[in-house]
Every structure is written in structure tokens, then in C-alpha cells.
Amino acid sequence: MKNIYTEQGLKGVINASGRMTKLGVSTISDEVADVLVDAAQNYVVIDDLLEWAGKKVGPLVGCEDACITSSASAGIALSVASLICKDNIQKVEHFFDTVKKDSKRQVILLRGHNINFGAPLSTMLELGGAEIVEVGYSNKSTLGDIRDAVSDKTLAIVFVKSHHCVQKNMVGIEETIRLANELEVPCIVDASAEEDLSAYIKMGADFVCYSGAKAISGPTSGFVACKTEEYAKNMRLQYSGIGRAMKVGKENIMGLVKAIEIYQTKPHTSMVGTDDLKEFMAEVNAIEGLRCSIIQDEAGRQIFRAKVDFDEPKYGLSAKLAAKALSTRNPSIFTRDHQANIGSLAIDPRPLNSKDELFEILNALKQLKGDKKIG
């Protein structure tokens, strides 16, 4: 494996974990790369560009306007801050004085959604000035939990659509948005890695925060689909306040717009197909102590992965030790290890660059079997 990183002495990476920030999220197409270079080599009035990009992206995803951000997490913070400040530039420029004085900044969040996705979601909300009000339980929530928490101090209701969240016994996104609309409370949806860029704005959400670098395979960036032009305009005003610390470059803005255009108009393809995954599964099942199956994404997305269950006494290693051993190889192999503690790893085919990488993982699993030096 040879690339710009390995040439600098960094280890190569086979990414079977997913579009994860810690691994550089995703890779961009040549079309997007050409736009990035062209944009980076020219000047533009950034305020004009941000407004143009928002008006361009909005219709592509089914809304009036959007706010381009440096990431989905920045979008979460700026959504909250814009609801506090609205179009008042004095509040924007004196944000923390504003927060101290403003009592209407409570954000309702399901306890099972208060996650850490590499950083705490709560930190992103608080960065935007929110006072978090957790409702429900870690493994159970109802619409009544949300309704009873709403008061004259409520600024917004937040819903996190993510595999990181507890899925069982939880209120659904559509009914949460419907309740927020009924109560006339803005609803912010964290849809960072979601593949449908229109579904939640169609349901009536006020702000839907996406990563530009995950499903869309754009550059490091994000955007917030906004229900109204006013919401988007107020969000962009935050670039004169806390948004300055989260600014997104001209090249990334143009690259994101191009990536969304491609994503919304061309069929999405993966270098590793379903037949490849089935072949991998059959080969893994021939290894004593391993059992492989094809599973769907935990959050219900149309994403299918290979799940490898480890029988530690027969294989000679636990899933947790195997994940560690795979990641310390060269090239490093990263799997989805969210359930390693209960004996399984998952292989996400979407980020893989070729079928060869999939079968390099297979060979690594064969080599690790019974390795007494690992521990």
C-alpha cells in the first residue's frame, strides 16, 4: 500500500470500520478533487459564497435554504446558537454575555441519545449555549417524557439519528418531529451519517445537520438543511461570532456543493459488492472459532456488513484482542469494534478501496488464529 501518507512514514490503513472521523472519514472523487483545487486557487467574497452555496444546496435536499458548516457537530452548535441570537448581531458578537442573561435556552434531549461519537454530543449543544434537559431513561423513552419537559424556557428539541444511540424502546424520529411541530418548538436533528438528505426536512424538522464527508463523500465539511430561509440566514450570521472558530474554507464549500450534486444525481456504488461480502463470509466460516453472517445497520439504514463472531476458546483470541491486533498491523486494519466486548466485530465494505482489501482482512484473520504472542 503506497500513498501520500505512507510516503511520509505513516502506516497505511485498511478501513473496514466505516466513515469514521478518526480515520479521515471518507475519500473524495476526482470530480470533487478538481473543484477543490480550482476553488483553492481563486478568491471570492466568502459571505456571498456561503449564501450562494446555501441557496444551491437547499433545493438539492428539499428545503428553502441551508447553512454550510465545517462539520455536522459545528452545525449542531450553530443551530442552537442561532435560535438564541436570531438576527441580533449584538447577541452574536457578545454571545456568552447573551447566554448568561437568556433563560430560554433549554434543549430537550432523550437520555438514550446523549452519546459520545468521538466527542460528547452534550459539548456541541453547550458550545451553542444550550442548557441540556435530559428526558426518559437510557433504554426507554416516550412522547410524554418530551411533552412534560417543555416549558417557556424550552429552546429546542433534539433528536439524534445514529447507530450510537440506544435503539430499543425509544421514541421514533417522525413522531418526535410531529410533536415538536405541534408544540411549536424547533426540532434539531443530528443526521450526521444518514444517507437520505431529504427525509427529515420533509417530516418537518427545523434543522437537520449532516456531515459532508460521510455518506456524501465530500471534503471535511457539513451543512444544515433549514426549514426556512430565515433560519439559514440567522445561522450564517453566527460566522461573525462563535462560528468564526468553526469557519469552512472556500475550497471545501465548493467541494461540498459538487459532492452533494453528484450524490443526489448519480447512483451510489461501492468497490466491494454484496457477492464479494458473501464470498468473504463463506471463507471466514471455514476458520475454526469464527462465525460470519451478513447484518443490517443497527439504526435501520440500508447498509449491510459482515459480522464476525468469535468463539475465543476455539479461535484462540477474543474479539477485543483480535481488533487490537488487526489495528497494530501494517497496514493497520480497522473494523467496527462497538460490540467487541460481547464477542463480535463487523466489517463495513463501503470504505474499502478494493476487493483485495477485503481479502487482506480475511488473510489477517487466518494468521491471527491461535497467536499466543497477542495479549
TrEMBL record:
Phosphoprotein keyword on record: no
Top-rank taxon: Bacteria
Cofactor field: pyridoxal 5'-phosphate
Record's keyword terms, sorted: Pyridoxal phosphate
Family annotation (InterPro entries): DgaE-like (IPR006337), PyrdxlP-dep_Trfase (IPR015424), PyrdxlP-dep_Trfase_major (IPR015421), SelA-like (IPR018319)
One Pfam family hit: SelA
The keyword Ligase belongs to this UniProt entry's keyword annotation: no
NCBIfam families in the record: selA_rel
Recorded family membership: Belongs to the SelA family.
Protein name as catalogued: Pyridoxal phosphate-dependent enzyme
Organism the protein comes from: Youngiibacter multivorans
